[in-house]
Amino acid sequence: MKHTMKVTKVDVYPVEGLQKIKAYARVILDDQLQLTGLRIVDGPTGRYIAYPNNESGIKSGNFRNIFYPISEKLRDHITEIILNKYTNPNFIIPREDAFNLETIKETIQQKMFDLGYSSSDVSLGESLPGVYAEEFEADGKRFLVEYDTTETDEKGKPRLNVSDSDTEGNFATLYPESLEAVSQCLTLAMDEVETKH
Q1: Residue 133 and residue 76: Cα distance in Å, rounded?
Q2: pTM across the whole model
């Protein structure tokens, strides 16, 4: 299956007095590759993203891009994210773009199993888009684990919540920034559960 890269972080730096250049930007793809020196430019047909370039040396005034997306899908995705951030400084990248829910589900299930919990037979109904929820149990105690990409902190990190299924009491609300952090947060949350029980 072909992997499509996603912007997982974006920063935009507005500038003044540069005529057509409205801002500089940088993006990080898949939390692994950083692209800097991108420019938001007002062109004759609207705003677009210009990529860093330099003189080719073949002919004076002949410039070539140092890097650029070769797929239209990725180019459009980068453009959309950067322009959204420029238009709305509070824009947060939807976390379904940054985290694959199926991978999150597998990570949470494995960690809960490692901690001695099993999946309960209780049906929670159909999950909302961008939300994974599952109930786990051990020694007669049931706990609900929810990972919600639609509810984030100020840095855009999704909410991970652990609560008591019987009392609906909340044990922990955390905002992990990576798969590894999801596992670490679950360990902390379940330690809290054991302390309160």
Answers
A1: 32
A2: 0.52
